[in-house]
Amino acid sequence: MKAVRVTGLAAEGAESAPGAKRLELCDVARPERRTPSDVLVRVLCVGLDGTDREIVTEKYGVPPAGETALTIGHESLGVVVEAATDSFLKPGDAVCALVRRPCSDPDCTACRNGQQDFCESGNYVERGIKGANGYLSEYYVEDARFLVKVPVSAMAYGVLAEPQSIVEKVWDEVQRIQQRLVWQPQTAVVLGSGPLGLLAAFTCRCLGLETIVWSKSPQDSAGAALVRDCGVVYKEAESNSGSESASLNDYLRQAGKRADLIFECTGYSPLAFEAMTALGPNGVLALLGVTPGNRSIQLPADRVNQGLVLENKCVLGSVNASRKDFETGLFRLQQIEAKFPGLLRRLVTDRLKLEDVSGLDFSRIGIKAVIDLVPQEQWTELVNQAGGEAVYSFSV
Questions:
Q1: pLDDT tens across 65-74, in order?
Q2: 2-161+348-382 maps to which CATH number?
């Protein structure tokens, strides 16, 4: 079968030789089920994100043990081909897959209790990222525990379940944290207008929050149009004239807005620290973006510390997500589609074929790229249309 792989990788803890990494379309063996809980899945499409770009262009990405290549892609939508008769899944079911797998450290309380997204040892495995092949191949095999059924009605945007799960994990954590007080948030600020930032903005609108997106992308960008079309204020962070623009703090103060919740989705660390001072009293800042590097900055440490302490601010970091977050994410995607029809379809600006990926220039992607391994018009032939809707257990 065909798979897209990054070759020339070094083992964990080592650096690849300069120029050794290449993105290639390869022939690999089709995987087979080995245990009763294994499920064989045919891949319909895979979404690409900033992590995939960093694996290709930065010092990132770890191949499976003993190998020097990694199949990328961790945002998946597929259809079950083979599953055990006593599995909760059956052939024809549409599914997406979780990314992280628990570590084997007996002292890691989180992984021992099925919360590998909070792994304490750092020895977790992530498909398509760290220590295990991803989903950008014609087929994959996965334990049924890590597969989530996708409603037939959500097939068109089901590949967005993974990034949406990250947003839902943050919202779940924020609700738990804010049980500390009577909290009535009014305004959310999203930093960045990439796919994750846009999904965060859509979600905030579904939650009834006044929402502001602060981004370097120009006012006439596709992302800016998307957020405006769901009632979000878009603020370009830099002036086209080249003059120094107002800071986030200045903008919020001049607009008379208090940021009750901030999603930092850029990975630009100086902005993360600025957001700590821009955050309103009792507010929560969620840091979601990560960029490789060793940037250093000067900051008013005393003022940042005073604000966090005296105004009861909370800063949390979050990455990856659990099964519950995927399930909530699928619910939320349906809610977004119902409230803002067509918005999710417009989020995916580039639909490519498998053979296009090896020559892909990530800098030319509009907002979101999705690789179709099976043409969309053929999905209905593979998916069981009468299989019943997915039943979930979650809170929103």
A1: 999 999 999 9
A2: 3.90.180.10
